[in-house]
Amino acid sequence: MASTKDVYLVIGGSGFVGRHIVEQLLRRGDNVSVFDIVQRYQDVPFYSGDISDQEQVSTALRRSGTTCIIHTASPPAGLSDPALYWKVNVDGTKAVIAAAVQNNVRKLVFTSSAGVVFNGNALTNVDERLAPPERPMDAYNESKQKAEEAVIAANGKGGLLTVALRPAGIFGPGDRQVMAGLYKVYEDGKTHYQIGDNTNLFDWTYVENVAHAHLLAADKLDNPPPAPPLSTLEEIPLEAPPLTEAEVAILNHPLPPLDLTVGRRCIPTSEARPLGPYVTPPPNADKLVAAFEDKFSHPEGRPVVRTRFDPLSEPNLFRTKIDKPDTTPLGVAGQVFYITNGEPCYFWDLPRLVWNQLDAVFPGHRQKRGYTVLPAPLGFALAFGAECWGWLIGKEPALTKFKVTYSCVDRWHNIEKTRRVLGYEPQVGLADGVQRMVDWWRTEYTSGTHKITH
């Protein structure tokens, strides 16, 4: 850990994710400023500027005394302006990197996206070994992919340490995209429509968990790596060297289950169980009950057993070290990490949870009716027609091939590396997160300040 506290500049700190990061930094007493194009809050020093202008970013870094940049700035997904995505995400990120090196900033944490590896096909329990596709799904993910590549390539240049985080399906208080879209479907009376059979698992991530991961990455970015990079050795070994004690400590402890939403369930055994009905308690009754209850207070998982297919197995770790000899896969610097709730659910389940919560806000608005299920092929056909018509009249259609793909394929990610290396554990479960988002939205709605636009 660093011997002195960092001074933070959150680029994009007026936005959705950026604001939650600022609030968490303030809660723990850190020195934080914001760089953005619009000022929405008055509680931290603010620097207005164009992210693609290196000198404007550099000026903010000098004046704020920044030692750690958290870069969250990005136009929202779904815009039909590729040039804007390139200007902010690619040119802007390169300007941030150059300004950081120019001003001897030590750390850069970049908000990437899990979408950088999505090419329209199913992603099932994918880990960080999966390379981004040559043809990203859209301009947003293409620009994020290029920005992430620039951030990782900059690690170690001019003393700068970098890391990229890939959150998936962010939602929560302050969200102007997911919640706005779901409310419009609710208001239009279209919640009974479903595309696909809803057997595809999807990763949603509560925004405060995303912010928490950014702080963990920032705190651990300059920690000594658990093993020296292969490039620092006199010669690169032909066989995997033994793991260091620090690597073993990261890899071999059992992780607790992710149970914020589903809760914990213990299976009784002969050594640990509730007593149930009895006439005479067994002689070791207290020991049996204590052992069973202790599983709830110490919910460690099963012992770690790995195969050669495991991303954190010794052969795969060595392969990663060979491919990237200047970094270590169990360090933070120069790495990418998926950030999710660790609770993949069927795609349509979360929207329906939101709509059920909205029923409490607008009692009687929805009539009970069965679901109208459109098979995925029919959804694609309708989207194709809508896109053709939209092209003719110059208007973005409500249904697109991307939206159909998005709602019909598996998209969930393995976060074991994130949990072990960053020490990340989700703080808020999906169900609680939805409740918090809808409560926030209700406050905005009743005050008349909520807007559909971002």
Summarize the structure.
The chain is 39% helix and 12% strand. The protein is of the alpha/beta class. Helix 1 links the parallel strand 1 (7-11) and strand 2 (31-36).
Which secondary structure elements does this structure contain, and how are they paired or packed?
Layout: E1 7-11, H1 16-27, E2 31-36, E3 46-48, H2 54-64, E4 68-71, H3 82-102, E5 107-111, E6 123-126, H4 139-153, E7 161-167, E8 170-171, H5 178-187, E9 193-195, E10 201-202, E11 205-206, H6 207-220, H7 245-251, H8 285-297, H9 314-323, E12 336-339, E13 345-346, H10 349-361, E14 372-374, H11 376-393, H12 401-408, E15 411-413, H13 416-422, H14 430-447
Parallel strand pairs: 1-2, 1-4, 2-3, 4-5, 5-7, 6-15, 7-12, 8-11, 9-14
Antiparallel strand pairs: 10-13
Helix pairs in contact: 1-6, 2-3, 3-4, 5-10, 10-14, 11-12
Q: What would your notes on this structure say?
A:
It is a single chain. The protein has 454 residues and is of the alpha/beta class. It has two domains: 7-223 and 332-447, Rossmann fold (3-Layer(aba) Sandwich); 252-307, no CATH class. Helix content is 39%, strand content 12%. The strands form five sheets. A seven-stranded parallel sheet has the order 3-2-1-4-5-7-12, sandwiched between helices. The protein has a two-stranded parallel sheet with strand order 6-15. The two termini are 37 Å apart. The model has no long low-confidence stretch (mean pLDDT 91).
